[in-house]
Amino acid sequence: MRKLAILAAIPTLALTSACGDDSAYEETGDALEERADAVENYGDDRAGQLEEMADEASTDAREDALNARAEEVDDIGDERAEALNEVADEME
């Protein structure tokens, strides 16, 4: 049974070793992708906070202003994340 498990693992190990380690350039691309995710998540979180504030706003005008700002913040986060991802894609 143990030999069977070892034989089953050989193709996986061969594929993994054939790929090799990422270069420093590719590692930087991976880090940029992680940064893009963090930027997008931060924008989403901040937009969510603004939307919660809008729900509690005392006037309709204040609610509209906060909702508009939440949309702007979300869009900015998405655009920055997209730009980072484009650079990261070029590094792969």
| Gyration radius from CA atoms, angstroms | 22 Å
Residue share in helices? over 70%
**Main sheet attributes: strand count, strand direction, barrel closure:** none
- Written as H for each helix and E for each strand, in order along the chain, the element string is HHH
- Count of individual domains: 1
Basic shape: rod-shaped
Uncertain parts: 1-7, 13-18
- Give the rounded overall mean pLDDT: 84
Strand content: under 5%
Distance between the termini: 40 Å
Count of helical stretches: 3
What's the number of extended β-strand segments? 0
How would you describe this structure to a colleague?
This protein has 92 residues and is an all-alpha fold. The chain has one domain (23-90). Helices cover 88% and strands 0% of the residues. It is built from three helices and no strands. The chain has helices spanning 2-19, 24-55, 60-90. α2 (24-55) packs antiparallel against α3. It is rod-shaped, with a radius of gyration of 22 Å. The chain starts with a helix and ends with a helix. Residues 1-7 and 13-18 have low confidence and may be disordered.
Brief summary:
The protein contains three helices and no strands. It has helices at residues 2-19, 24-55, 60-90.
Features:
0% strand, disordered N terminus, 92 residues, 88% helix, 3 helices, mainly alpha
How do the helices and strands line up, and which of them pair or pack?
Elements (H helix, E strand, L loop, with lengths): L1 H18 L4 H32 L4 H31 L2
